[in-house]
């Protein structure tokens, strides 16, 4: 081997090995710091791109969940109004039945009629006020509402159910004028109650379907997040063990370089007399 003070092949080789170790050590420390084995496109362009697309899909599902939750609230408000309306119909039936008693005096009859009319008006008020964020499924102003169903913009459609007076077969002028007339509308109150309960049943079924879909969207988002983690997350236990190994290798490389740099000093012994 050529003995030269200008060129030290051993030191150059030791330096190359030390630089390689330092590069690998920096990469390992980066994975530990970020918790990711693929933190940028330069780590693995194809996998990074795939992970980004899946992350975007997962993030988009947050908007879908918000929309579906608004749907839940809108239906819940309509169902609450429906419960109130069915109670009012039942009370109206009671008033009409009581007013059909021919033994009542005029004052009692008129009191029952006034109560009946007040209950009737409350039905329309309940339907008109059954709004969430300005939207209603009960007041008859819309036929259906569409909420986001997926990240592609698909719709989950809910059919509206009019629970106001016209929706259950009554009118703003619906009342009785005599005992016989009161008796005749008892059956109409039964029909109105049946209509209202059928509409509420439809809303309940829609609410159940929306709840099921919202649960599915949540599970889908969890699966996407787990999939992204499988693609880019680092195994920290493995990286920790590797870090210890590389730190030891780095120290040995420094010592090897130091020894290699001392090699030219042996040339001085050749010039000693």
CATH architecture of the largest domain: Up-down Bundle
Q: Tell me, what is the CATH class of the largest domain? A: Mainly Alpha
Find the structural class using helix and strand composition: mainly alpha
Q: Describe the sheet with the most strands.
A: 2 strands, antiparallel
Write the H/E string, N to C: HHHEEEEHHH
Uncertain runs are: none
The proportion of residues forming helix, as a percent range, comes to 55-70%
Mean pLDDT: 90
Q: How many β-strand runs?
A: 4
Look up the CATH topology of the largest domain.
f41 fragment of flagellin, N-terminal domain
Instruction: Report the β-strand fraction as a percent range.
Output: 5-15%
What's the CATH superfamily of the largest domain, by name? Answer: f41 fragment of flagellin, N-terminal domain
Give the overall shape: rod-shaped
**Ends apart, CA distance between termini:** 24 Å
Radius of gyration: 40 Å
Describe this structure in words.
The strands form two sheets. A two-stranded antiparallel ribbon has the order 1-2. The protein has a two-stranded antiparallel sheet with strand order 3-4. The chain is mainly alpha-helical. It has helices at residues 9-34, 45-99, 106-128, 179-184, 186-232, 236-262, and strands spanning 131-132, 135-136, 144-148, 155-159. The chain starts with 8 loop residues before the first helix and ends in an 11-residue tail after the last helix. The protein contains six helices and four strands; from the N terminus they run αααββββααα. It folds into two domains: 9-35 and 234-271; 45-231, f41 fragment of flagellin, N-terminal domain (Up-down Bundle), CATH 1.20.1330.10.
